[in-house]
Every structure is written in structure tokens, then in C-alpha cells.
Amino acid sequence: MAASGWTLLEVAKLIVAFLTPLLLILIGIYVHRVTKRFEQLQWLGQKLVEKRLAIYDDLAPLFNDLLCYFTYVGCWRDLKPPEVVSLKRRLDKSIHLAAPLFSEDFFTACMNFQQHCFETYTGWGRDALLRTQFERRQDAYGDEWDSDWNDCFSSKISEPNDIRAAYQRVMKVFARDIGVHSTFVVPDSGIVPHNIR
User: Fold this and answer.
1) Following CA atoms 161, 98, 76, 151 in sequence, which dihedral angle do they give, to the nearest 10 degrees?
2) Which of 8, 51, 95, 157 lies 20 to 30 A from 173 at CA?
């Protein structure tokens, strides 16, 4: 008569047969979760880059307009002093809204650039003042110059080369944070005119 008891080997085989599919299911779930997390991080990274590019599209032309205005190149004559003060307000809002999406270096570089362009906190309820001389601008505008614009200018003048260097720093940090170039060098747009008063 055969023994009805199970041998240790048969019990082990039964346990392995039961645990193998369970282990495969657990490994599959783990791999699926890791894959989904990776896809989510990849999607988030892509969306972050897209948002940063949209912010670049919004801010870069404003920074360039300021560079042109304060270094007397390009479109500087197309911008009236009150419009330049308005640019500062727009930049302030956009920079502060964008700050969480960029590095601390980005925010610092933007604020440094603006400090070279504008004198702030000049009195309660007063607009920022342009840290540039107005005489050449007044000459260039001729009869179109509004004498009220004289009040838009600060007596603390920034050097155009310092403004250019601060602008280049902003663009370099922008490029690095977007991930376009880690060692981007802003092309030099030529010399600042020497006949600026």
C-alpha cells in the first residue's frame, strides 16, 4: 500500500509552482510602475522645456529692446522713455512668475540686468528711472522730444558695456536653463558707440 503523505520535495515543488507566477506578477507590477514613473518624469521634463521656451519667446525680445535702448543700437530710437519704463513693469511681472521654473542664477541675472538699466525705489508711487543720459536721445528725437520725458531719467548713469555684460549673463543663463547650450556664448553685437554723452 502506498503512503499518502507528501514528501518534502513534493511540497517544495508545489510552493515553487505557486510562487513563480506570483513573483512574476510582482516583478511585472514593479517594472510597470518604474516605467510609468520614468515616462511621467520624461513628460514633465518635456513640458518644462516647452514652458521655458515659451517664456524665452516672451522675455528675450524685451531684454533685447532694453539692451538696444541702453546701448544706442538697433531699435533704440523707436522706444520712447515711458515705453521703456513700461517694459520694466512687464519684465518684473514675467520674471517673478517664471522664477520657479528656472534656476536661482536666472532670477539673479535678470535682476542684475534690470539694476543696470533702472534706478528703483526713488520715492513712494514713483516709476523707476532710466539709468542713461538723455541728451543724445533728445537730439535724435528733435521736435518730437517731450520735455516731460526728462523726468524719466536718473542721475545715476550705467555704463553701456556693463549693461551689455549683464545682458550676456542673462542670455547665457537662459540658454543653460532651457538646455539648449550648456556653454553658450552670446555673440558680440559690435562696439558701443563712443559718442554717447
Assistant:
1) -90
2) 157
69, 68, 94: which is closest to 174 by C-alpha?
94
Exposed/middle/buried for residue 12 (C-beta within 10 Å: 0-12, 13-18, 19+): exposed
Q: 162, 163, 164, 182: which is closest to 172 by C-alpha? A: 182
Which of 165, 166, 184, 187 is CA-nearest to residue 175? 184
Could you tell me if 153 and 129 are in contact, meaning their C-beta atoms sit under 8 angstroms apart?
yes
In the structure grid, which three cell numbers stand for residue 12, read together? 517544495
Listed residue (151, 142, 166, 148) closest to 77, CA to CA: 142
Nearby residues of 81 by Cβ (< 8 Å), 6 or more positions away:
130, 134, 137, 149, 152, 153
C-alpha to C-alpha distance for 61 and 10, rounded to whole angstroms:
77
CA dist list (Å): 114 to 27, 48, 110? 54, 25, 6
Confidence (pTM): 0.74
Q: Where are the domains of the chain?
A: 59-178
Q: CA-CA distances (angstroms) from residue 84 to 66, 87, 113, 119, 167? A: 7, 5, 14, 13, 16
92 contact partners, CB below 8 Å, separation of at least 6: 114
Between CA 35 and CA 30 the distance in angstroms is 9
